[in-house]
Amino acid sequence: MRVRIGAAVAAALLAVTTAVAPAAGAAAGQSSRPSPGEPGAGDPYFPLAGNGGYDAVHYDLDLRYQPPTPAPAPLTGELDGVATITIVPTRHLTRFDLDLRGLEVESVAVRGRPAEFTREGDELIITPKTILPRGKAVDVVVTYGGATGRPTDIEGALYGWVTTRDGAMVASEPEGSMTWFPVNDHPTDKATYDVAVTVPEGLVAVGNGDLVGATTQDGRTTWSWSSREPMASYLVTASVGNYELRQTTTPDGLPLIDAIDRDLPPSATAGLAQTAEMIAFFEGRFGPYPFSSYGAIVDDDSVGYALETQTRPIYSRRATESTVAHELAHQWMGNSVSPARWQDIWLNEGWATYAEWLWAEHDGGPTAAARFDEVMAIPADNSFWQVVVADPGPLGLFAGAVYDRGAATLYALRSQIGADAFDRLSMEWPSRHADSTATTEDFQALAEKVSGQDLAEFFDVWVRTAGKPML
Ligand code: TRP
Ligand code: ZN
After folding, report:
1. Is the confidence at residue 5, as pLDDT, over 60?
2. Which of 192, 218, 352, 468 could share a disulfide with 380, CB 3.0–4.6 Å?
3. How confident is the model at residue 6 (pLDDT cuts 50, 70, 90)?
4. How far apart are CA 214 and CA 63, in angstroms?
5. Which CATH number do you get for residue 439?
6. For the domain that residue 115 is a member of, what is the CATH number?
7. Which listed ligand is nearest to 235 at the C-alpha?
8. How far is CA 336 from CA 151, 236, 432, in A?
9. Ligand 1 test: best mutation among 5, 308, 332, 398, most atoms within 8 Å of CB?
10. Both 19 and 54 in a single domain?
11. Three-state helix/strand/coil letters over 246-314
12. CB of 360 shorter than 6 A to ligand 1
């Protein structure tokens, strides 16, 4: 479902340099003198996404959503919420930020006492009544709400809380969670989540993880979901629609909860039929499935792509077999081990695409070798080869090369280090960095460790420089 970027667009992307601000004052955090948290986590691509000075460890979101009234009403809904965020300060903290774009903040309380707050761009700046001691967990309660729309990312793709005719599709990569809740919006700060969404009776709100319950009162149903495993903020969803919930269990005992839009024909979900087999297949390659449940959200509206929202990927209108394999592989590659910086996204998309190749080959389709050859048949002067896969630029996150050259890199790495070492790498990568984040350098280091080879030149050629690798 991913959008291919044409040659013209790819060329335009190259004009964009990565000349962005360096990490916001990492040095400031070390002192024991009380100080404010930085407004950004320091990601070179999205400097103000995330924040400094604390770790968010748990989010409890209690939301109420009113979708648009029937057509031809404009696509705007009403979202109101109380976010209770447990944070652990990493210094004595005088002030800190959460990320929040749009919506209105009614009040903020810290440790049960009202706190002062201001807004500046996407920063919600909170000044507690007293200094927050380093290492001591406190609850931050933000009461907020307002009209919802159809936000877009820097490329112009829909993301965040995307209002639809009958609900919302919520897909927030890379920093779109801030469009619907106050958040430390960077993958390096994973947290557990409890999300409850109250919607008009008849609609279903689907979150990540386990369904805790659904209770109806006065014409509204509250759907409560719980994610016990830590999750990056971009992987959180709370999609609302005219869904049918289908609850089953795989032969291995993993609960599957699918939410399928009632307006879709059976053909739209045919690609989900082999989900249990795919899980078993990828467990054989990548190790045990990393979470406590799985399933799909298939909406009859569209954001233009699918997203691997944790435990419950969301699909636009149709879940094809290859996309289902792709989003499932992301649960290991991307969700359990996530990019430490957005420039490392090829570790998500390269692996998920390579996994598509593996599944297709296993299922009687084209071989991985044929898919690799297809990529290598792209002429050297094609702009496809101009993307630096391990540094594609903020506008190149979803460039075709991040996916296909990324997958080809893994295929070539297997030839370079041999099948045995590659199989160990495929297992060790997601287990070593489970529930955490890692960089391209971490990946190279592990590949070198399992193979005993110096792979500096290999990674330079394949992911750190533009130009078609010579075989
Ligand atoms: N991560 C998604 C996937 O590959 C793709 C994605 C997210 C995307 N946002 C996007 C693709 C915006 C194109 C445009 O499964
Ligand atoms: Zn992907």
Report:
1. no
2. 468
3. very low
4. 14
5. 1.10.390.10
6. 2.60.40.1730
7. 1
8. 27, 13, 10
9. 398
10. yes
11. EEEECCCCCEEEEEEECCCCHHHHHHHCCHHHHHHHHHHHHCCCCCCCECCEEECCCCCCCECCCCCCE
12. no
Find out whether the beta carbon of 305 lies less than 6 Å from any atom of ligand 1.
yes
Distance from the alpha carbon of residue 398 to the mean position of ligand 1, in angstroms: 6
User: Residue 2: pLDDT above 60?
Assistant: no
Q: Beta partners for 200? A: 220
* Residue range of the domain that includes 55: 13-331
Say yes or no to pLDDT of 16 above 80: no
- Among the bound ligands, the one closest to the CA of 350: 2
Residue 265 sits in the same domain as residue 390: no
Structure confidence at residue 31 as a pLDDT band (50, 70, 90): low
Q: What is the pLDDT of residues 272-312, one digit of tens each?
A: 999 999 999 999 999 999 999 999 999 999 999 999 999 99
349 lines ligand 1 (CB under 6 A): yes
pLDDT given for residue 12 in this prediction: 38
Q: Does 293 reside within a domain?
A: yes
| For residue 4, pLDDT beyond 50 | no
How much is the pLDDT for 29? 44
Our answer on whether the CB atom of 404 is closer than 6 Å to any ligand 1 atom is: no
Domain count, the chain: 2
Residue 257: closest CA among 266, 244, 268: 244
Span from the CA of 129 to the centroid of ligand 1 (angstroms): 41
